[in-house]
Amino acid sequence: MYTMNDTIFGKIIRGEIPATKVYEDDKFLAFLDINPVAKGHILLIPKEHYVWVQDMPNELLGAIFVKVKELIHAMKTSLGCDLVEVVIEGKQVPHFHISLIPSYLDHSYAAWEHAKYEEGEATFFAEKIKSAL
Question: In terms of Cα–Cα distance, which of 80, 92, 74 is closest to 131?
C-alpha cells in the first residue's frame, strides 16, 4: 500500500515539488496539471492521503465535491469554457484526485490529447481562475 510520502502529490503538498496552485486550504489543494488535456486543467486533491474514492470519509468526500462545484464556476467564468469535465482518478498517481478539464462544445479532444503551456502561461491560467473564486 502507498503512503502519501510515496506519491508525487505528497511531495507537492509538502512543498518539495513546485506546483502552480489555484486553490489551497487546510483540507484541499488544487493546482494545474503539468500535462493538461486542455489549458486550465486542474487537479484537486485532499491533503490527507487516500487512494480511492471509497476510502474517503463521507464528510471529506462531500466537501471536496462542493469545492469541485466552486472551481467549475470559477473556470467557466474566467476561461469562458462551455463546461468542465470531471474525472475521478487514483490509478496513475495513487492519491485520490479529481481532474477538472475545461471543455468547449465545438471541440472534442481526440483520445485525451495533451496541451502544453508556453513559458509563463500556466501562471496566467492559474491567476485567471483564482480571480474568479
Answer: 74
